[in-house]
Amino acid sequence: MTNQVSMSTALHFPSDFTWGVATSAYQIEGAAAVDGRGPSIWDTFTHTAGKVIDGSNGDVACDHYHRYAEDVENIAALNVSAYRFSISWSRVQPSGHGAWNEKGFDFYSRLLDKLAEKNIAAHVTLYHWDLPQVLQDNGGWLNRDTASHFAVYAAEVARRFGARVASIATHNEPWCTANLGYGNGQFAPGFKDPVAALQVSHHLLLSHGLAMTAMRAVKSPAKLGIVLNQWTAMPATDSPADKAEAEWEYARSVQWFMDPIFKGSYPQIALDRMDQSLFIVFENDLKIIHQKLDFLGVNYYVRAFVSTENPPRKPEGKLGFTDMGWEIYPQGLSDLLIGLHREYQEYDLPPIYITENGMASADKLEDAKVDDQIRIEYLNRHLAAVAHAMEQGVGIRSYFYWSLMDNFEWNSGYAKRFGLIYVDYATQQRTMKESAYWYRDFIEAQKSF
Ligand code: IFM
User: Fold this and answer.
1) 409 C-alpha vs ligand 1 centroid, how far in Å?
2) Is residue 19 within 8 Å of 80, Cβ to Cβ?
3) What integer is the mean pLDDT of 24-47?
4) Which CATH superfamily is domain 18-446 in?
5) Is the pLDDT of residue 246 over 80?
6) Ligand 1 atom at minimal distance to the Cα of residue 128
7) Predicted pLDDT at 6
8) Is residue 356 annotated as a catalytic residue, yes or no?
């Protein structure tokens, strides 16, 4: 049996497989100070000189707050049946605790109405990195109380919207919140303290567990879970040093989040390498974190290619690199999924949703057309990887392309375009790229099998 992924235009997915597209609040909404929204850490970060490559921010972004109806029409035109988006916590609860902002909830209610009108299932994420600034002023995710505030917010969203959405994910990519936000400072709030990142990762997991309990208590009918960004870690060579480093990389990035949730413990190989006195875990925390999920969201972009040499070896990149400089490596997706299935199926691994996968390319709008053949090839190859993992028995229920449209790519600003839809930021005009038509037709073709 081989894990080789082949290029194929004749992939057949089950008829109940869900096709979708994904976005997040800060990256598309804009309307940063409209209708009572409070500032988040990303407002603060992007308005601090030197934090974003092109000096841009999400004040306007794709102006989705005002153009959501047009955007939902576009989602429907893609033939997808699901849309994944996040709620801006500070739009619905400006201080992150205390008073709710009804105008904020009204916006999401209008969006849900429009999605329902088009028969598109809503998949909501509660936290896609935009912590209310007031909570940051009290220590952010380093303060254990933030986890309790998060659970209150989660329960309120589940109470109001639980019957109108298909799923609710607590966090998107907590690895990024901890390591890029607190570890190396690339993301808001911009701390450079690896020890803090460790503590933050624990508080994020704790907040996930508390939120799951709080949402179950309001008897939300929505499926509940979490979205993790994951990769396989491959040693650059067969040297014992590279192999050990790759094992460590997988432990600290993938197992670090998976093990507490599914096994109720942190991975020993990671604990062995760190000074545990620097990291505070209360007695009951792991019990709170370790609870059954209805789904696991997996975001995949790139493998980790691990080299201990100096300078480190780089991957050959046979299929090229994206505009982010990330190696295009679809086999990493099937390897990852098959590995997760093998390691966690006995620990109640729920159905997997591929909640993000996609690429940035240097797209150009010419004669009202964006000819992004590279994205079509990327999609085709990654869908083949998903199909391959399913053939190996992995329970995958959905695939969401990242992203619906070009948007604010965090510290890379607007220069990196991940969308199926091209956005002209000067006019806010949306143009379907060739990949959008390809995805639309691919989904249509699935209906005829
Ligand atoms: O744009 C991001 C998204 O917010 C989270 N996952 C990765 C994407 C591409 O970098």
Assistant:
1) 7
2) yes
3) 98
4) Glycosidases (3.20.20.80)
5) yes
6) 4
7) 41
8) yes
